[in-house]
């Protein structure tokens, strides 16, 4: 592939030719495949996508051409659910468990989510950036262009805001689009044990307001679960989000069925995530409200969960399904979206088309940015991944292999 210095082409037209395209264009069937395809980009936006034979001659004359030598191009991948920013890790706790330690012993040794909260509170912004960057780079190396990052390991206003600031800073340090979610309603910190309502009133709500005023938050998330927050408690958080005009997401039905997905759907949420314990009514509610079902096979795998998300009910209802890493230090220490797709297929029996749709078009929808990215269509940001593969199934089938040839972000070759 002839690569050229992208600065000279920033104002002109770049043309990726001799490619096989998986456009994910919903007006086409399946993956929206175009053999013998071309993509033209001007000022970071796609201005043509289609068969080479249909390229307007003026485009060909003006453009700087890149020969893709028959490689596949997909939209840049999107990881729509991560907790990428946190201090420390929980490898010691993992090891203790394998050596037979009980939950209590781990808690006594300072393990569990409280240890991540402690480590996140004591780190400076610079330290959190330094710890998050290798995780981010690992994702980007597999063709990721967009990533969602949650707060939720601060559980006090200052640390929640610090996490969101770190997430925003990551976007300035790498060619990537970052969307943030405010997840103060992730767990109750020790100082508010047994006082969820006080924690919500003192920390979650005022912190949301501050984060919003400092433009640090793109969506509001929560963990609706027996060990976290009830449907009624989440309602209070969502009412505040709604009043501020912020979109909503929810961790729901991960360990039990509290009908959080139905709550999220009733608020027109962007997504409901995890969903192993979702029932048919919940699947229908998601489909009806256009709320994306985000499945997180990394957490399913790491927790050795056996209850599968209700794939049949989700498909029958016509819900949009996305996949994400859920990268976090406790239940999903995973920084590979390719492996996540493989897990979606192997563990959840998702098809290749479903897995690829789940990390592109549907992941963009889960973040509310489908008009900007997630498919190869005219007018969208030129976020592309170019792959050394013979067929798209290879992206899902292989385990621990990265066939990325090049990544294009906003029209620039990385
Ligand atoms: N679900 C999970 O599995 C993680 N958070 C969540 O909402 C657990 C986070 C942790 O253990 O650090
Ligand atoms: Fe999560």
Structural overview:
This protein has 414 residues and is α/β, with parallel strands linked by helices. It has helices at residues 57-62, 91-98, 103-108, 113-122, 125-140, 157-173, 196-213, 231-244, 260-266, 280-289, 297-302, 311-317, 337-346, 352-358, 361-366, 393-397, and strands spanning 13-22, 33-42, 45-51, 64-67, 72-75, 77-79, 144-150, 177-185, 219-224, 249-252, 271-274, 292-295, 321-323, 384-387, 404-409, 412-413. Strands 1, 2, 3, 4, 5, 14, 15 and 16 form an 8-stranded mixed beta sheet that branches. The chain has an 8-stranded parallel beta sheet with strand order 6-7-8-9-10-11-12-13. Fe (iii) ion binds at residues 81, 83, 251, 326, 328. 3-[(4S)-2,5-dioxoimidazolidin-4-yl]propanoic acid is lined by residues 113, 116, 186, 223, 251, 254, 299, 328-331.
SS summary, helix count = 16
Largest sheet: 8 strands, mixed
**Taking Cα atoms only, what radius of gyration do you get, to the nearest Å?**
21 Å
SSE-based structural type = alpha/beta
């Amino acid at each position: 592939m002839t690569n050229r210095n992208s600065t000279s082409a920033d104002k002109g037209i770049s043309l990726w030719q001799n490619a096989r395209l998986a456009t994910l264009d919903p007006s086409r069937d399946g993956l929206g495949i175009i053999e013998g395809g071309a993509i033209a980009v001007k000022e970071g936006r796609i201005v043509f996508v289609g068969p080479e034979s249909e390229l307007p001659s003026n485009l060909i004359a003006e453009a700087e051409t890149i020969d893709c030598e028959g490689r596949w191009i997909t939209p840049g991948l999107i990881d729509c659910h991560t907790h990428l920013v946190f201090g420390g890790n929980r490898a010691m706790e993992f090891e203790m468990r394998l050596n037979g330690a009980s939950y209590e012993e781990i808690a006594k040794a300072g393990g569990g989510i409280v240890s991540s909260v402690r480590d996140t509170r004591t780190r400076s912004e610079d330290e959190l950036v330094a710890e998050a960057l290798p995780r981010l780079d690992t994702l980007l190396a597999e063709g990721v262009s967009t990533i969602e990052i949650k707060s939720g390991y601060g559980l006090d206003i200052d640390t929640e805001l610090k996490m969101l600031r770190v997430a925003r800073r990551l976007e300035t340090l790498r060619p990537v689009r970052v969307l943030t979610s405010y997840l103060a309603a992730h767990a109750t910190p020790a100082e508010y044990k047994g006082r969820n309502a006080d924690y919500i009133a003192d920390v979650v709500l005022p912190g949301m307001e501050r984060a919003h005023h400092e433009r640090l938050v793109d969506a509001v998330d929560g963990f609706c679960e027996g060990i976290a927050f009830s449907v009624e408690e989440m309602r209070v958080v969502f009412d505040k989000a709604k009043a501020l005009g912020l979109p909503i997401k929810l961790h729901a039905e991960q360990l039990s069925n509290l009908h959080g997905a139905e709550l999220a759907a009733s608020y027109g949420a962007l997504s409901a995530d995890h969903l192993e314990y979702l029932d048919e009514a919940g699947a229908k509610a998601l489909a009806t409200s256009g709320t994306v079902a985000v499945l997180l096979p990394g957490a399913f795998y790491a927790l050795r969960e056996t209850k599968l998300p209700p794939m049949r009910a989700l498909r029958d209802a016509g819900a949009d399904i996305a996949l994400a890493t859920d990268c976090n230090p406790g239940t999903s220490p995973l920084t590979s979206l390719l492996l996540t797709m493989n897990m979606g297929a192997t563990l959840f029996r998702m098809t290749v088309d479903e897995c690829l749709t789940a990390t592109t078009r549907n992941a963009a929808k889960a973040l509310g940015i489908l008009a900007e990215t997630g498919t190869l269509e005219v007018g969208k940001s030129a976020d592309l991944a170019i792959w050394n593969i013979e067929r798209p199934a290879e992206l899902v089938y292989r385990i621990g292999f990265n066939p990325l040839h090049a990544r294009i972000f906003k029209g620039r070759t990385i």
